[in-house]
Amino acid sequence: MVAVAIAETDRPAAVGASLNVEGVSHAFDIDGAALPVLNDVSFNVRPGEFVALLGPSGCGKSTLLRLVAGLEPPRSGALFEDSRPINGPFPSRVVVFQDPTLFPWRTVWKNVALGLEAQGVLKSQRPRVDAALDLVGLSAFRNAYPHQLSGGMAQRVALARALVNNPRILILDEPLGKLDSLTRISMQAEIAALWQRSGFTTLMVTHDVEEAVFMANRVIVFSDRPARIKADMTVDRPFPRHRGDPKLAQLRSNILGLLGLDANW
Questions:
Q1: Contact by Cβ (8 Å): 255, 262
Q2: Do 201 and 254 fall within a single domain?
Q3: What are the C-alpha distances in Å from 59 to residues 68, 216, 260?
Q4: DSSP β-ladder status, 76-81 and 19-30
Q5: Is residue 6 in a domain?
Q6: pLDDT per residue of the chain (265 residues) written in tens, 0 to 9
């Protein structure tokens, strides 16, 4: 799939939901003791924003995504989607993980159709599967099986499986972390283009600073565990973006400094 560059003025009105994270702290029970992973985290995301979360490995970023998805409740604090409390999973919030986790015995089309099938609406909503595959450029591979796909194609299937549910908040947990560098660069542009076309709210965890400033319009930087917010930075650059943009390079340098890695760059 070739990503289509979309100017800011061409973006549709946001269909994404707002997200509010208010005073969230969390811990895991390990060997009878509490291991804190999040420390009084608060931030708001406007409808249609793309927010990247950066921080040291193991600081609690992916845990925060699980709380946003409603997969578990926080120890303290609260999370809200469009001012409604997040108390559990809901179809409007969809997670794409680092591993595509496709069922090898199902075709691409049938993997994408899983969500609609589980909801019992596949018979009447079949065109949504075709539309999702078209959106990620895989219509020609609808009858292929996962073992016939490259890593990038498999991750596009995972994206289509998420998009078929018309999410209002798309949650990306290092979705490109296992791809080779060239495929990763291509997929960064493709996901950014999908977000621009569709207008959903996006929350993405990544360890790649350049990826964050290239794709997102806000970057939140976390401390070591238990994670607290060190900085909330706006990426005020229009789309399409260019990796050689000196302002993006300066922002990347600033973020690396916050992470204590500027001396190694």
A1: no
A2: yes
A3: 16, 20, 14
A4: antiparallel
A5: no
A6: 333 333 333 444 458 999 999 999 999 988 878 889 999 999 999 999 999 999 998 889 999 999 999 999 999 999 999 999 999 999 889 999 888 889 999 999 999 999 888 888 888 889 999 988 988 889 999 999 999 999 889 998 998 998 888 899 999 999 888 888 888 888 898 889 889 888 999 999 999 999 999 999 999 999 999 999 999 999 999 988 888 899 999 999 999 999 887 655 5
The whole-angstrom separation of Cα 140 and Cα 142 is 6
Q: Contact 20/80 with Cβ under 8 angstroms?
A: yes
Question: What backbone torsions phi and psi does residue 39 show, to the nearest 5 degrees?
Answer: -130, 95
Query: Cα(79)–Cα(28) distance, rounded to whole angstroms?
Result: 18
Q: Note whether 73 and 123 are same-domain residues.
A: no
184 and 63 in a common domain? yes
Q: Which residues contact 199 (CB under 8 A, 6 or more apart)?
A: 11, 12, 13, 14, 15, 16, 48
Q: Is 226 helix (H, G, I), strand (E, B) or coil?
A: coil
156 and 196 belong to one structural domain = no
Domain count, the chain: 2
User: Both ends of the chain: CA-CA distance in Å?
Assistant: 32
Q: Which residues, 6 or more positions from 135, have their beta carbon under 8 angstroms from its beta carbon?
A: 160, 163, 194, 197, 198
One-character DSSP codes across 68-135: HHTSS--SEEEEEETTEE--S--TTEEEE-SS----TTS-HHHHHTHHHHHHT-HHHHHHHHHHHHHH
Report yes or no on 126 lying in a domain. yes
pTM: 0.88
Tokens of 4: 């289509």
Q: What residue numbers bound the domain in which 112 lies?
A: 99-166
Same domain, 176 and 82: yes
